[in-house]
């Protein structure tokens, strides 16, 4: 009986190891970073970097910009952000949340990572989309007049 149990345990372990070896790898977005030129009206504008991650149908995007600055001192998680990305393969994708570091007046703006849902094959570009930030009840909308570089985020 002891030999049978040991043999069964070894066989189960071997099957588990084989299953892990053939398990699909985590989905990935390419590229993982892109640059855009954003215009945020009276709040400024300029170069911004978007950083994307993906795991299955879940994705996050973070926007950072030294050209767009905080108008006032802001506490952590005080900006309500909605990032809409144009999708050349279907409906726009929306990433939203209240995630930002604390910032002093004049500091570079960072929002995210903002979570959203994506589908395999989505091709997402900030151009044609927008970033809306609500800061102390004031809505700031940022857009871009050109495609992001080096290209859209393509979801795996």
Element layout with pairings:
Blueprint: H1 2-21, E1 29-30, E2 33-39, E3 45-55, E4 58-69, E5 80-87, E6 93-97, E7 108-117, E8 123-135, E9 138-144, E10 153-155
Antiparallel strand pairs: 1-10, 2-3, 2-9, 3-4, 4-7, 5-6, 5-8, 8-9, 8-10
Keywords: Signal
Signal peptide: 1-28
Protein name: Lipoprotein
Structural overview:
- The protein has 156 residues and is mostly beta strands.
- It has a single domain, classed as Immunoglobulin-like (Sandwich).
- The protein contains 1 helix and 10 strands; from the N terminus they run αββββββββββ.
- Strands 1, 2, 3, 4, 5, 6, 7, 8, 9 and 10 form a 10-stranded antiparallel beta sheet that branches.
- A hairpin with a 2-residue loop joins strand 8 (123-135) and strand 9.
- Mean pLDDT is 86; it is low at 1-26.
- Keywords: Signal.
- It comes from Streptomyces sp. 900105755.
- This is Lipoprotein.
Task: List the defining traits of the structure above.
156 residues, mainly beta, Immunoglobulin-like, ten-stranded antiparallel β-sheet, 10 strands, globular, disordered N terminus, signal
Helix content: 10-25%
How much is the radius of gyration in Å? 21 Å
Domain tally: 1
Q: What does the main sheet amount to?
A: 10 strands, antiparallel
Please work out how many helical segments DSSP would assign. 1
Short description:
Helix content is 13%, strand content 50%. With 156 residues, the protein is mainly β.
